[in-house]
Amino acid sequence: MPDFTWLWFPLLGIVAGVLAGLLGIGGGTVLVAALVALLPWFDVPASDVMHVALATSLASIIVTASASANAHRKRGSVLWPTVAWLAPGLVFGGIVGSIWAIGVDGSTLATLVGVFCLLMGVRMAWPARPAATAALGDSIITPVPRGPWLGVAGGVIGAVSAVVGIGGGSLTVPLLVSRGVATVRAVGTSSACGVVIALASAATYALVPSIGAAPPSDAAVATKAFGMVGHVHVPAAVGIGLGAWFAAPYGVRLAHWLSGVVLARVFAVALATVGVALLWP
Fold it and tell me: What CA dihedral angle connects 68, 59, 198 and 187, to 10 degrees?
C-alpha cells in the first residue's frame, strides 16, 4: 500500500500559506504545533522533535513568506524602505536566537512557544489604535517607518522568531500598526521581513550542531539519513513550502477584503489556539 502520510506536509502548507497571506505570520505558529505531532511518525526522536519542528517551520517559511510577500508586492502592500531598515537586525537576531535555542531542551522551548502565542493572542485581540495618518486632499499619506531604531527592533524580532519558529509577524505587524501603518500593509511588509528571518534562522539551525553535552541518539543519527540537514527536516519543509506557495495568494485576497479589526481577531484566535495546544499536558 502506498504511504500517504507525506501528504500531511503539503496540506499543512496550504493552511500556512493562507495564514501567511492573510495575517503575515508565515504560518509558523500553527506549523510548529502540527510538526510536533507529525514528526514522530517519521522517526524523529522525542528528544529532538521540538528543535526539528522549529527549524523545519523556519525553513518552510522561506517559501511561505516569499509567496505571501510576492502576492502583497503585486498589490503594493510592501513598504520596502521599512524592510531595509529592519533587515540587518532581523539577520543578527535570527542567528543569535537560533544558536541559543539549539542549546535549550525541547520541553523548555515548547513552554516558551506556548506562552508566547498566548501573550501575542491577547495582544492582538485588543490591538493598539493606529497613529493618525496625514491627509492630503482626498488621498492619505501612508507612513513609512524609517530609522536606526528599526534595526534594534529587528534584532529583538529576529531573536524571538528564531526561538519560537515563526516568521515574526506577531511582533512586526503590531509594531508597524502602532506607527500608523494600515494593517494590510503591515501584513505585507511583515511577510517580506519573514523571508529575511527564515533565511538567517533556518541556515543557522541547519549548520550549527547540537550544543548539549549528550551525544545524538542512535535514532537521531539514523534519521539524518532520511532527509535531515542539521535540525531541518528537508522533505517536510519542501512539502509545506509547495502547499504554501499555492495557497498564499488566496490569503492575500482575504487580507485585502477583510477589515483590519477582523484580521486582528482572526490572528488572536489562531495564536491562542496554538498556545493552548503546546501548553496542554
Answer: 20
Question: How far, in Å, CA of 234 to CA of 218, rounded?
Answer: 20
Per-residue pLDDT, 85: 96
Q: Please report the pLDDT score of residue 26 as a whole number.
A: 54
Q: What is the C-alpha separation between 88 and 243, in angstroms, rounded?
A: 29
- Report, as an integer, the average pLDDT of 164-189: 85
* 253-262 CB contacts, 8 Å cutoff, 24+ apart: 253/21, 254/18, 254/21, 254/22, 255/21, 255/22, 255/23, 255/24, 255/72, 255/184, 255/187, 256/75, 256/77, 256/184, 258/22, 260/127, 260/177, 260/182, 260/183, 260/184, 261/127
| Model pLDDT, residue 259 | 61
In 103-148, which ranges are continuous DSSP H helix? 106-125
Q: 60, 89, 96: which is closest to 195 by C-alpha? A: 60
Q: How many residues does the chain have?
A: 281
pTM attached to this predicted model = 0.79
Q: For 87-96, 128-137, 192-201, which range has the lowest pLDDT when averaged over its residues? A: 128-137
